Every structure is written in structure tokens, then in C-alpha cells.
Amino acid sequence: MENESDHPPRGLVENKERGAFYKDAADYWSQIPATVDGMLGGYGHISTVDIKGSTQFLRQLFRLKVAPGKERAIDCGAGIGRITKNLLFNHFKKVDLVEQDPAFVAQARTALEAHSHMGNFYCSGLQSFEPEADTYDVIWCQWVLGHLKDDDLIQFLQRCIRGIKENGIIVIKENATTSTELDEDSTDSSVTRPLDHLCRLLQEAGLRCVKQKRQENFPHGLYPVYMIATRPLNQETSDDSLNQVGINTDLSASNTSESFEEEANGFNCQVEYSSDDSTKTEVSPTDTVSNRGLKFKHLSNENNSNRMREVTDKTCDIV
């Protein structure tokens, strides 16, 4: 049985009463302009790099032996539809989106409704959203799961499992802290989870990892961002690992070779270094920027005793 100590301690944000947790987030986003810069906290120029990384990751999923289809996807926590427009329209015949802020949904509708690939618009928080059963080839969740409490996240993912088709995939693209602690943002009522904590929640929801990769070429000072493709444990296919989601962030200081295998909570990862630092942004050591997903904070101020930063500069795929 899992011990309470296996999870990071909860602070003020996670301990908020459920209604207040979601109301505070909704109130925050109701004050944000319905623009790409608004979605990304003034860092709209990051969007191109983000979409490029997501495109490469999605193409790798389509090359799996048992690949997801290309009929229908849904963009969860879609904001004004940035990912729908720039990523999902390019790969799926129909794309639905779900977003809790009415102004963002209205802007998405104005911009995207006439597009031939546009499907349904849902105005709902993910804590209460239920995807239609057996409908989606890919469910894409990006920079939104930090707005769900742990229990609600597990239940949402379980509803997503019911919402995907037989060979469907649920993709999570989220920030990860560089320590073992939850990073709570009282401004927008969200949490940034350690990667292993997020992975445990995915496992509790009944998901296993198909592929995992770190987003490359984001500015210095940005939290590590991971793309994790998952499938239900009961949908075992021959093209990917049968192991559950998880990663061991306790890396040895001796692990400095160009590539190595790491035992990671039940599955092996082939880890490769990436040295591409072409995108640089200076961030003040005291700056923390809250926005829709991107979380900037000076990493040198964090507790890196478990050398989580080693993981942030590698690509980690199932082998």
C-alpha cells in the first residue's frame, strides 16, 4: 500500500476547499485577455517552439506499430484554441475543444468555427467534463492539469480512458518541478507537480506510458516541460511498453555519458543528452511569471539535491 509520505506535502493551494480552488482559478483567468500573449503570459513567441515540439512528438505516435487514428481529437484546457489551430487541425479531420472560460471559448468560436476541421466547442472545467465515450483518437491535455486537484485529475483521466477509441492515446504536456516538492501558485490557483508525482497519478488513473519526451529549446528559467503519451493498462499492444507510468528522478552523479539506460519505476528508459540551447531568455532570479501553463522561475534557487535537472536536459523514451 502506498504511504502518505510517498506524495509531496500539500500546502495552501492544494488544501483549499474544492469550490474555492476552482473559483479562484476561474476568477484569475476571467481577467486575462483572450490572446496568445494572454494565454502564455506575455511569452507568445514561445508558441512556435512549443508547436514544433508537439508536432514532432505527435508524428512519432503516428509511427507506432499500433498507431492512433486521425479522425477526431480534443484539445483540453484549450484557451482560445492555439493548439487546436496550430497543431491538431494539421493532423485530424475533426477537432473538439473544451475550455472553462466563456470569453476564451467565444474567441475560439469566432476564430475557428468556420474551419472545416472544427468540431464541437465545450465550455466546461475539466473537473466536471466527460468526453463522449469511444470518440477520440487522441485526447490532448496541455498546461491545464495543474488546475485540477489530485483526486479530480485521476477521475478526469479515467473519464478520458472511456472517451478514447480502441487504439486511442491520451497525451499530457505539463511542467514539472525540479525538486520533490509541489510548487503552488496562489495567484492562479494551480500546482506544478514533481514528475514522479504526476506519473503516480497517471498510474492511479489506470494509464501506462507509451512514449515520453522533454520539450526542447524553451527559454532558460522555464520549468521542464514533458510530453507523455499514455494508453490504458487494459489496452496492451505489441508496439509499446506494457509497464506503468513512472520515472526515477534520483540520478547518480556518475551518469554523464552521452546515452545510458535508466531503470525508472518499472520500465527502462533510453536517455540521450540534448545540447541545443538556441533559444535563450534571461529571467531575473526573483521572477515568477504566472500564465496559462508556462511557469518561469530561476531554477538555481531550487533544491536540486536529487539532480532532477539532469533529467530536464534529456529525451526519455520507452525501449
From TrEMBL:
Q: Does the keyword Nucleotide-binding apply?
A: no
GO cellular component terms, alphabetically, are: cytoplasm
- The keyword Methyltransferase is annotated on this UniProt entry: yes
Record InterPro entries: MeTrfase_NTM1, SAM-dependent_MTases_sf
| Reaction equations catalysed | N-terminal L-alanyl-L-prolyl-L-lysyl-[protein] + 3 S-adenosyl-L-methionine = N-terminal N,N,N-trimethyl-L-alanyl-L-prolyl-L-lysyl-[protein] + 3 S-adenosyl-L-homocysteine + 3 H(+); N-terminal L-seryl-L-prolyl-L-lysyl-[protein] + 3 S-adenosyl-L-methionine = N-terminal N,N,N-trimethyl-L-seryl-L-prolyl-L-lysyl-[protein] + 3 S-adenosyl-L-homocysteine + 3 H(+); N-terminal L-prolyl-L-prolyl-L-lysyl-[protein] + 2 S-adenosyl-L-methionine = N-terminal N,N-dimethyl-L-prolyl-L-prolyl-L-lysyl-[protein] + 2 S-adenosyl-L-homocysteine + 2 H(+)
Listed GO biological process terms: methylation
Query: GO MF annotations for this entry?
Result: N-terminal protein N-methyltransferase activity
Pfam families recorded: Methyltransf_PK (PF05891)
Q: What is its EC number?
A: 2.1.1.244
Q: Keyword annotations for this protein? A: Methyltransferase, S-adenosyl-L-methionine, Transferase
Q: Which PANTHER family match?
A: AD-003 - RELATED, ALPHA N-TERMINAL PROTEIN METHYLTRANSFERASE 1
The UniProt similarity line reads: Belongs to the methyltransferase superfamily. NTM1 family.
Q: What is this protein identified as?
A: Alpha N-terminal protein methyltransferase 1
